[in-house]
Amino acid sequence: MTIGTESLPAAFAALGDDTRWGLLQRLGTAPASATALAADQPISRQAVARHLEVLREAGLVETEIHGREVRYRAIGSRLSALARDLDALAQGWESRLRSIKAAAEG
Fold first, then answer.
1. Residue 5 clears pLDDT 90, i.e. is over it
2. Closest to 73 in 3D by CA, of 16, 11, 8, 29
3. What are φ and ψ of residue 74, in 5° steps?
4. Residue 105 CB-half CA count within 13 A
5. b/e map 56-70, b = 16+ CB within 10 Å
6. Percent helix, strand, coil in the chain (nearest 5)?
7. Helix, coil or strand: residue 1
8. Dihedral sign (CA 93, 9, 15, 59)
9. Does residue 84 have a pLDDT over 90?
10. Is 0.85 surpassed by the pTM of this model?
11. What's residue 7's pLDDT?
């Protein structure tokens, strides 16, 4: 699975915010509700919920219903796919840089 190019901007925009990055890191350890996540943040529960919605729309988290509570969890397969796509991009750049260096030295 790779991340479609149409969803890359949303994923990077979502990950580019420090608060969302922190929420995603927390959700990588265990699912949690917006209320539980807000307890660790210097922002309101409503602000946390808005950040979670951005992560959900970017396809990085999903919701689970437990009774009346909505819990969020990171989508590991999407994060792994994004990491693989970034690694492939980095390898391509490294290859190009090696070619340029070889041409400059040769």
1. no
2. 29
3. -70, 145
4. 6
5. eebbbbeeeeeeeee
6. 60, 15, 25
7. coil
8. negative
9. no
10. no
11. 67
Confidence of residue 96 (pLDDT cuts 50, 70, 90): confident
For 11-66, write each residue's pLDDT tens digit: 888 999 999 999 999 999 999 999 999 998 999 999 999 999 999 999 999 999 99
Given pLDDT bands bounded at 50, 70 and 90, which one contains residue 4? low
- Per the listing, tokens 């990171």 go with 74
Highest CATH level, class, for 8-105: mainly alpha
Rounded Cα gap, residues 99 and 104, in angstroms: 9
**Residue entry with tokens 């660790």:** 40
In this structure, the number of other CB atoms found within 10 A of the CB of residue 31 comes to 17
Strand, coil or helix: 67: coil
Angle at which helix 8-15 crosses helix 18-27, to 10 degrees, equals 100
> In a 10 Å sphere around its CB, with 0-12 CB exposed, 13-18 middle and 19+ buried, how is residue 90 labelled?
exposed
